[in-house]
What we know:
Blueprint: E1 17-21, H1 25-38, E2 41-45, H2 48-58, E3 62-66, H3 74-85, E4 92-96, H4 101-110, E5 114-117, H5 122-171, E6 181-186, E7 194-200, E8 206-213, H6 217-223, H7 225-236, H8 241-255, E9 262-270, E10 275-281, E11 286-289, E12 296-299, E13 319-322, E14 328-332, H9 334-337, H10 348-358, H11 361-376, E15 385-391
Parallel strand pairs: 1-2, 1-3, 3-4, 4-5
Antiparallel strand pairs: 6-15, 7-8, 8-9, 9-10, 10-13, 11-12, 11-14, 14-15
Amino acid sequence: MSTFAGGGALDAGDRMEILVVDDSPSIVALLRSYLTAQGHGVTTVEDGEAAVEAFARQSPDLVLLDVVMPGMDGIEVTKRLRAISRDRWVPVILVSSLQTEQDVVRGLEAGADDYLPKPINLAVLKAKIRSFHRIVRMQTEMRSQTDMLRRLQDEQTYEHELAASLIKAIVQRVGLQEPRLAWRVMPSARFSGDVVAAERGANGTFYALLADATGHGLTASVSLIPALQIFYGMARKGLPLGQIVREINARLREQLPVGRYVAGLMVAIHDEDQRFEYWNGGMPPALLLSTDGQSTRELKSDQVALGILPDADFDDSCRELRFVRGERLVAYSDGVIEATDLSGEPYGMDRLVRAVQASSGKASLDRVMSDLHAHLDCAPHHDDASIFTIELG
């Protein structure tokens, strides 16, 4: 006969479903009476096989398990329960009159969480149940939070995939496949705030755009959408470069929040009379490389970035240059020249010029990207980097 002491009703919300496994009818009856009076739900069985079946069927919150039973003993039952529960943790308290250290060790090694000797002290039993209830409650809360985070991550993944698909559909146009154009974009995150766009106009003019939106990631990438829509729509019609620039500025100022803007370099190349127009608002100076690749001219920014000034104050005037067949135009974002290694040294203009002078076309951009990666040498890249080169003539 077990000796019991203790009592007192449970606080609201502390109820547990408890599986009691013992081959002694008197102990089963007393535990059922006590635990029920405490406010717990109780299921009782008398042997190991029935314990495994009840556990699988009812998923209790806690198991009180006698060690010494005919047939399958409590040690083997514990192993079976752990195999069934898998990812769900259910505390198992072994109850036995065997009290040697070896018995305790065997039980814990089998997967039990605690050990309670007979005769049972109800005050100790109550304390252990309360302790395990707190752990189970925390586990439930953590599982709920994990599930919520997983749902949020799934939603975010879906939204990102949708955004990526939308942006790709807007960006990837036939103009980017022009043989004379080579380009690279190296995002610092999944989404790039830098973009390269190109389009052949109905009048034969070849338009190109290099844009850099404030910020990084999805927010910056989305900021580029209005600019790209206008660029492609108006360039396809062969409209004047200044008109395209002005319309982009007006749309961005209308749609972007205060503090958001887009630096941009746009060019319109007229091959028939070997000239091109350009507009540079807030971008680093583009480079016009001679036919031998050794001398350069700079196309500096002399305008304000897009989306800042009201239409009345905006300057859409473009610069015009003549070119010699075989010259190259190279444009890049500040993420290229300002990329710093672990010592804080930027990649810089000198390295960029040497890289683009060393070869032409796609090979020159591969050289720039290779040099840039070597310069960073595993240092984190905190800004998007983009570059294009156009063979003139």
